[in-house]
Design brief:
eight-stranded mixed beta sheet, 21 strands, six-stranded parallel beta sheet
Length: 155
């Protein structure tokens, strides 16, 4: 039997396939989505139907993923534009000391292996993010972006 952790509040659609060592926290996963091993998906994330999330992807709070999206291995989404462990006075940061920036990935997007998606962005329908890209701004529907920072190659 696979070893995965589905924490309270997770909504799994029909025919969802989870591989070993997946951690799901209060998220929603659409029908027929496949989630590879060592993936972590945090509270409030919505993943559409017929998605494929490859091993070692990290999807934090504030991310919404449409239908038919491919997320390659080691893709990392972020949700804090100015991350830090402590405040300027040296006190540990708490939940109230940061601002969540929401990210939307529209339908039929493909995100290549090792890409990093910075917070507060929209990746348009059917866009392609090349492997290893660092996405720092919105991506237009149908666009292909590559590099660090990711730049548009073609529409």
């Amino acid at each position: 039997m696979p070893a995965y952790s589905v924490i309270e509040g997770v909504k799994l659609g029909e025919n969802v396939k989870l591989f070993s060592f997946v951690n799901l926290f209060g998220c929603e996963i659409g029908d027929s989505t496949k989630i590879g091993c060592f993936v972590e998906i945090k509270k409030g994330v919505r993943v559409g139907k017929n998605c494929k999330i490859e091993p070692f992807a990290f999807i934090p709070e504030g991310v919404t993923i449409g239908d038919g999206v491919f997320i390659g291995p080691h893709v990392c989404f972020t949700n804090d534009k100015y991350p830090a462990a402590v405040n300027p006075d040296g006190s540990p940061k708490s939940a109230s000391d940061w601002s969540l920036k929401e990210t939307v990935v529209e339908d039929n997007v493909s995100i290549g292996a090792g890409s990093v998606i910075l917070p507060g962005l929209r990746i348009g329908k059917a866009a392609v993010i090349g492997a290893g890209s660092v996405v720092t701004k919105d991506v237009a529907p149908g666009a292909t972006v590559v590099g660090n920072p990711a730049r548009e190659m073609r529409k």
